[in-house]
Design brief:
single chain, 171 residues, alpha+beta, Cathepsin D, subunit A, domain 1, 4-stranded antiparallel sheet, 11 strands, 20% helix
């Protein structure tokens, strides 16, 4: 008799602990919040012949609308990247076919190690700044979702500096 009472008490306690969960199953579903646009928006401020000023976005990143081999590509300046980094989709838009991409280089990124193909961009432009023959790596789309403007571009400039939330590039 005591055993039956004990089993009944345990079963009742277990069921009682699940009632809040069961009640949630009957609540009407709440509509999902609208997706937020996480794409980095170009923040170009001004351009004069031989220079351009980029304003930092709310995260402190410098984004701009660059022209790579004559094609417009949104990119983020990344002084931690040795070379410009583009993904396969962008590389195809710039004229680098699959047969020209040899993914034989292993590179270390913020997201870990990945394969990359070395290419040379004929020209990289933003505002009044125009640079030729810039080294770049092409990475698989799954390894890189956006374009990073690395030091292979920055080192070809006469100077660059950050002041008051703006990055000034001088050719």
């Amino acid at each position: 008799m005591i055993m039956r009472s004990l089993v009944f008490a345990v079963a009742t306690a277990a069921l009682a602990s699940q009632i809040p969960t069961l009640l949630k199953l009957t609540e009407p579903a709440k509509p999902d919040a609208p997706a937020q646009n996480t794409k980095a928006e170009p923040m170009q401020v001004s351009a004069t012949p031989g220079s351009v000023v980029l304003r930092a976005d709310r995260r402190g990143h410098f984004n701009g609308s660059f022209r790579l081999n004559g094609k417009t590509v949104d990119g983020m300046v990344d002084t931690g990247a040795s070379l410009i980094a583009i993904n396969e989709t962008t590389a195809r838009k710039l004229g680098f076919g699959a047969n020209r991409l040899d993914f034989r280089h292993v590179v270390n990124t913020a997201n870990g190690r990945t394969e990359a193909a070395y290419v040379v961009l004929d020209r990289v432009e933003i505002g009044g700044v125009k640079v030729r023959d810039v080294d770049a790596f092409v990475m698989r789309d799954k390894a890189l979702s956006s374009t990073l403007i690395g030091m292979s571009f920055m080192n070809k400039l006469k100077s660059y500096r950050v002041e008051n939330g703006s990055l000034k590039l001088i050719q």
